[in-house]
Amino acid sequence: MQDEDYMRQLSFGNDSALDTLVFRYHKLLYGYAYRLLQDEKLAEDIVQETFLKIYQQGKKGYVPDQFKPWMYKIATNSCKDYWRKASTQREHVTDKGEERMAEVHSIIDRQVERKWMIESLNQLSFEYRSVLYLRFYQDLKYAEIALTLDIPVNTVKGRMARGLKYLEGILIEDDRKGAGANE
């Protein structure tokens, strides 16, 4: 069955349809939220909030045309809400938190380059970071990203191009700093 069919099942009172959606998307959604927020507990809260909203909409009979972009849109909006609320009181990651994050990335992909890339991505503004994460880590197409973020496809393409350009500058600068430290 397709994801949209499970949403229909929710509207018919089949609550177990949500279990299937959670099984399919929990890990992906958690990874997306974690990459945007860099906080394990907060990412889990966002995932739970997203599935709660999916459940509530399903119970009301709402079935999106495309489930996956709609789901990411809910999660993205929840992340945006967090950033708006926290914009004046952001907490900085402690040294322990950075070590823990490095260990998690090491376990996940065992590549130092991935950690470097994620740290570099996290230097980008939310609008560029979210587009790049959705494209390269969640494997969404431009049209799906546009649906997720509720922006035109051309805006997605523009943010993708500018985001990649900014990311390239960050990576080059980081590489220069690293080379300078080794001299």
Key terms for this structure?
183 residues, mainly alpha, Rna Polymerase Sigma Factor, Chain: A, Arc Repressor Mutant, subunit A, 2 domains, 79% helix, 0% strand, RNA_pol_sigma-70_dom, DNA binding, RNA polymerase sigma factor, sigma factor activity, sigma factor
Outline the structure in words.
By secondary structure, this protein is mainly α. The protein has two domains: 94 residues, Rna Polymerase Sigma Factor, Chain: A; 74 residues, Winged helix-like DNA-binding domain superfamily/Winged helix DNA-binding domain (Arc Repressor Mutant, subunit A, Orthogonal Bundle), CATH 1.10.10.10. It has nine helices and no strands. The longest helix has 30 residues.
Instruction: Give the oligomeric state.
Output: single chain
Total tally of structural domains: 2
Low-confidence stretches: 88-95, 104-112
Separate helix tally: 9
Strand content: under 5%
- How many strands, what sense, and barrel or not for the largest sheet? none
Share in helix: over 70%
The chain-level structural class is mainly alpha
**What is Rg?**
18 Å
Average pLDDT rating: 81
CATH structural fold name of the largest domain? Rna Polymerase Sigma Factor, Chain: A
CATH class of the largest domain: Mainly Alpha
Give the beta-strand count.
0
What's the CATH architecture name of the largest domain?
Answer: Orthogonal Bundle
Shape: elongated
Distance between the termini: 58 Å
The ordered H/E elements are: HHHHHHHHH
Per CATH, the superfamily of the largest domain is RNA polymerase sigma factor, region 2, helix turn helix motif
